[in-house]
Amino acid sequence: MAHAGPTSGAWNETRQDMTGALASALSKRGVLRVAGPEARSFLQGLVTNNVDLATGMTAIYAALLTPQGKFLLDFFIAADPADKDAVLLDCDGARAEALMKRLTMYKLRAKVTIEDLSEKLAVLALWNEDGSPLTEGPGFADPRLPGMGRRAILASGEVGKAISAAKAREAGEDEYHRLRIMHGVGDAAQDFEPDRTFPLEVNIAELNGIDFHKGCFVGQEVTSRTKRRGSVRKRLLPAHVEGDMPPHGTQVKGVAREVGTILSGDAETSRVLALLRLDLIRGSVLEAGYAEIRPEVPSWLHIDLDGSEEEAADGE
Question: Is the full-model pTM beyond 0.85?
C-alpha cells in the first residue's frame, strides 16, 4: 500500500499564492504508522490528547508520559489518508525507535501494527515570514500555535515538489527553529529531558497537547493533580540575551544561586529558551555565562513570573 501522507488530496488544485511563505524539510523528524482496527482506541488510552480529533486534515499534538507523569516522548498524530484505520506519528527521529518500542510494550493483544516509515516519509514545515497564521497549504495546521504555520507528512521524494507547489521559499532548519524560539515553543530533542521533565513545565498543556477531559492516559493522575493545584514550579520560557550567547546547558544564576538552565538558542536574534524556577526569578538580574538574560512570558502562556497562573479565558 502506498503512503502518500496527509498532503494528498485536492489542495494542489485549489492552492492560494503563499507570498512570504517559508518551507523547511525537518530532517531530524521521523514518522511511525500505527494501523489496525484498534489503532485509535489503543493510542487513546496511552497519550495525553484526544486521538478522535485527528481526522481529515486536522492533526493533534500529544505526548507519552511515564506512569509517574514525567515526559517521555511527544509527537503529532495525523490521519493516514491511505487507510481509515491508521494514523501517522510525526516524532523526533532520533527517538523514533524508542517510541516504537514503548508502544510495542503497551500493545499486548491489541489488533495493532506499528511500523517505522522514517526512511520513506518526510516532514515539511511551512510558515509565514511575517508571523501571521498560514491558513491554507499542504498538510495540517500546526495544532500548537497559529504562528507555527503548517506541517505536512509526505513521501521523501515529494518535498521539493510540495515546496514549489506552495510557492514558498525553501528555508534552512535553523530558520524554523528561530521561528519556534521566537514563539517560545520548545523542541523535545533540545529542550525536554525524558523521564525528568514534567509536561506542564514545558507548556505542553498550553500548546494544546493535553486533553484533561478525554479520559485516562498514562501519567494522567499526577498531571491532573499538578494542574488542579497550580503547583508548577518551573517553566520553559523565552528570554532575550544581552552579551555572549550562552551554550546549551549553561546554568542560569539569580541572586547567588542557580535558578535554571539554558536550552535552545538562536544567536542571530539573541534569544534562548530556558527552563527556570518561577519563584526565584521575579525581580532578579539573571546571568548565564557572560550574559544577562531577560525572561519573557508569551501571550499564549497564562502565568505571572511569580509562578501563579492567571485566570484562563474560559474560566477554568
Answer: yes
